[in-house]
Description:
Elements: E1 2-18, E2 21-35, E3 38-44, H1 54-64, H2 75-85, H3 90-108, H4 112-115, E4 127-130, H5 135-144, E5 150-154, H6 160-168, E6 174-178, H7 185-195, E7 200-204, H8 212-220, E8 226-228, E9 247-250, H9 252-255, H10 258-270, E10 274-277, H11 284-291, E11 299-300, E12 313-314, E13 317-319, E14 322-324, E15 334-335
Parallel strand pairs: 4-5, 5-6, 6-7, 7-8, 8-9, 9-10, 10-11
Antiparallel strand pairs: 1-2, 2-3, 12-15, 13-14
Helix pairs in contact: 1-3, 2-3, 5-6, 7-8
The chain binds magnesium ion (MG).
Amino acid sequence: MHFSFEPLTLKTRHVFAISRGASDTFGGAIVKIEDDGVVGLGEAAPSAFYGENRGTVLAVIEHLRSEIPDDPFSLEEARRRMDALIGGNPAAKAAIDIALHDLVSKKLGVPLYRFLGLSGEKTPFTSFTIGIDDVELMKQRAVEASEFSILKIKVGTDRDEQVLDAIRSVTDRTLRVDANCAWGPREAIRRISVLEQFDIEFVEQPIAPGDAEAMRFVRENVSVPIIADESVKTSSDINALVGAVDGINIKLMKCGGIREALKMIHTARALGMKVMLGCMVESSIGITAAAHLSPEVDYADLDGNLLLKADPYAGVEIKQGRLVLPSEAGLGVRAKDDSTS
Ligand code: MG
């Protein structure tokens, strides 16, 4: 097998702001694993919140390459070896895990979802995310995103009520909100009680991670479901949240790839929890990889590629707000300049 990787820089169309920061430039990496003329593609989209950046990702991928089994079908073994060599660093691991999944399903000649035993027909609608901005701009973005039947609104400022009021005044679509840890527990209850009047589907991560009892306290005192995002990185974080949240948001870049994401879906289901599938700002490689798991989830938020000024890759499409999986073998992702895949 031939292994290579390179840095990737992504720019968003607008500055993308959430409650803890804003940026329009995102640095990650692309991994390519070639075997017998077949190339598997993977992507790392690191997040500083989880301790990664482009520098760590490039260093860790270089470190991990020796751990890739000779047989690319040994996917569980690859995951175990990577975890044994170094903890954390989920985006770096995800890049390798995704590339291996792309490679082996291409070798078998089947789309990744079929390799995973899933139905490509049963994909969900995805939400479109509106980052924090001026009230009028957020309202305008809600109007512009007319193709999407679900909007996810980033909250965590003093103007959240005005934002929701403005957006609700122009749409009757499903609205979700994501506070990205912005509030303390009592504040969260107060804020959510105000936002509930705008008919929201659920609230993502109202408070900081690490205190399941505080999350339970919030959940018991509001009437909309609570979804944990920052509180849950891998399958081992889920059990502590039983009863404290209604569901979990899984991201390949938090958990380390498709193997672990599947384990998280099964763990959450076994514990009676709802499952959401989210993303970072990613190219169509990372987003398409996640989309192949989407037939198994309740809520999809796979729009990170749609926020980009220029996506170097094409893969999953959106038709009338629904995810449409590629029918080609593997991820079904190709480079737009056609020099890569
Ligand atoms: Mg979130």
